[in-house]
Amino acid sequence: MSIRQCACLKLRPGFKVWNSGPLFKTCALVFIYISLSFSFLSYSEGAETIILNIILNHESKGEFFVNLAGDGDFLIKVVDLKAMGFKDPKGKITEIEGELYISLRSMEGVEFILNEKTLSLDITALPALLPTKIIDFMPQRQPKVLYPRDNSAFLNYGINYSAGNSFDFQGLNITNQLGIRVGDFLFLSDSSYTETPTDKQFVRLMSNITYDRRQDMQRITVGDFFASSGDLGSSVNLGGFSYSKIYHIDPYFIKNPMLDISGLISLPSEVEIYLNGMRIRTEKLSPGEFVLNNISYYGGAGVLEIVIKDSFGREQRIVYPFYFTDILLKKGLHEYSYNIGFMREDFGVESNRYSNLALSAFHRYGISDSLTFGFRAEATKDLYNLGPQASYLIPNAGIITVSLAGSTGNKGRTGFAGSLNHTYQGRKVNTRLLINGFTKDYSTIISESSGEKTRYEAGAGIGYSTKDFGSIALDFTTIKKYQGQDRQVAAVTYSRNLSNKATIFGTFRNIREKASANEFFIGINYYPWKDTSISARYERRHNTSTEVLEAQKNPPLGEGFGYRASFERADSNTISTNTINPFVQYNSRYGIYTAECRVQLDKTGIVNDTYQLSASGGIAYVGNTIGFSRPINDSFGLVKVGEIEGVRVYLSNEEIGRTDSSGKVFVPNLNSYYDNQVSINDKDIPINFSISEVIKYISPPFRSGSFIKFDVMKFQAITGMLKIKVNGEVKPVEFYEVRMIVDGKELTFPTGKGGEFYLENIKPGRYKSSFKYIEKTCSFDIIIPKTDEMIIDVGGIVCEADN
């Protein structure tokens, strides 16, 4: 082949190559050789366009058009450089026929070699010039989650009856809780009625209205609520107004700092990520920067190890020590609670006794991922108490929290308090240190009404844990008071897994108050199978020894039985008793029922018996349906599967119950804000029904009811014969198109041989229908009867043509 023959294959901008076989490759090599031989040509004399396979950092990017300059440089389109993987290509720009090109030689951090044998251009670029690969470890929500806002209501009730010897009446307790949700507003109120042989009492407990701003994770409460101002402050029960930032409104949002790591790789590599020696992720990465975001850990110190294996088999290990804590806030996040109201007095004893107006508040802010700063305050008309607080992460050495506070009480008394708290949780060793100090006149809302005054409180502890050894902890606490009893407690605890089914644990405590006392406790738990445990324990306290043997089976999440049976022997210097305590629980479709008996026999033969019977349940409303269920402790749902009876319904793969004759079943234990997996067993769906989905993910608001509908369609075929009467003669309507009005919409269907027609899934009723016959309209009605048959034959239909 001559050079002239090859020259005809030279490429110009806009040309297409239809054949890249041996002839083309040979010509291209000759062309490249000639072009390089005349490298004295300048840019001004033009550049030749060729096709080359681009290999960027040993990773093939495919074939691209490139311009070969006379001096051995290459001009490549900006858009093609980005397609190859350059993040933001920069260099000497040349415009050719309206397209922007960059000189490869002018790009900083880029080297290239032309391989004439393989018609490839090997480009080596610094990793920083290439795209960034982001790997996010944040827990991902399900892609299709329902966020219902149904209006709903529920009423929980509990009845507990107790009797003594000879079944003599001892007590009756009735509790209830009413919840009503309308949109984003929730009203809750609960109460208790108690009756004994000598007294009767009804008490209202807590009543409030809650409004959640779910997107902003904020909550407003009006009514009764508990409020805490934090360290060095008080926890109080108020009736009033509360405004708070509640991060668990979105359980998938992590408010605490997490680990973010970035790195660079110059070759195609496989990256393995290990957390405390356990592999948590494997990724194949192209050359460039990689970023690992939102790596989280349940708490304490740990080690993250990244193993990078490049395309040549070379291995690099990078180790990052870290420390996680739930005390700190991410940089820029706020957490707060502002509360004002009247203090609740004698809660649980009186219904509506309120006293002084009080304020309780705290606000924390993440200044950085290592430092969280805040303040706290509380006040009444006679007392003001406030102070700052800061938590700081000492790199790889734990978290330290410092709090200061000052108070001004009535009569102008001023007091001060300080707190220093350090905790460290390592993979094997954990420690704690606490020092709280108070001046005599320091007061909080609670201590102002209390007769006890603490001078200081100090505590320290250390623990050691390994898989083979188990866990041991030493702890010491001392409390010194201005008024009241001083106290010192020293404790040693130990626990160890003997196997994956057995655990042993023990505790020794020395308590010094007015006198010194020792307490000793040791026990073993054995789990022979799921939801079942057998335990034995020995305890000695205040000159009394107690031995207990117990077997327990936890009740299921749905319907079924659970039980507990224990035998206890107690010996002291004066008395010895044996106690048998059986307990049984049954979870039914509509409630939870328990029975318990406690029989105690002492040395003298005296027998003391107590018996308890209880029943609890809920009455719920949602989806225009009122039903009975087990107690509703959080949110609930009403599942509807058409009108099919006996369909099994599951919550997180645990059977909850079966649908009733109307296709409904209540699910009393949905978790607020979480993605609850609710599913049905499609094997329970009759063959003549079709269903579009068997799993739904429901994320309900707090204490709400959700209507969860699984659409099912009953399959029914409608057949018949269509005929027409013309001039007294009846003929089949063959191969015509018929129009039918169904729910205000036009439906068309064809007729076949002999006038046969076929329809599917039309509900029972009378439907206007028509068709054109020799320029005439023939109208008639199709009547579909109500039946459970899969195939409905409406028989022959004769239509008379309109005049």
Description:
There is one protein chain. The chain is mainly beta. It has 5 domains: 128 residues, Roll (Ubiquitin-like (UB roll)), CATH 3.10.20; 219 residues, Immunoglobulin-like (Sandwich), CATH 2.60.40; 67 residues, Outer membrane usher protein (Immunoglobulin-like), CATH 2.60.40; 88 residues, no CATH class; 84 residues, Sandwich (Immunoglobulin-like), CATH 2.60.40. The protein contains 3 helices and 56 strands. The strands form 9 sheets. The protein has a 24-stranded antiparallel barrel. The protein has a 7-stranded mixed β-sheet with strand order 4-5-3-2-1-7-6. A 4-stranded antiparallel β-sheet has the order 17-16-19-20, with no helix packed on it. A hairpin with a 4-residue loop joins strand 19 and strand 20. The longest helix is centred in the first third of the chain and has 16 residues. It is extended. The N and C termini lie far apart (84 Å).
Known CATH architecture of the largest domain: Sandwich
Number of helices: 3
Radius of gyration: 39 Å
Strand content: over 45%
What is the CATH superfamily of the largest domain? Outer membrane usher protein FimD, plug domain
Basic shape: extended
Question: What name does the CATH topology of the largest domain carry?
Answer: Immunoglobulin-like
Q: Give the end-to-end Cα distance, rounded to a whole number of Å.
A: 84 Å
* Secondary structure category: mainly beta
Largest sheet: 24 strands, antiparallel, barrel
Percentage of residues in helical conformation: under 10%
Return residue spans where pLDDT drops below 50 for at least 5 consecutive residues.
1-45
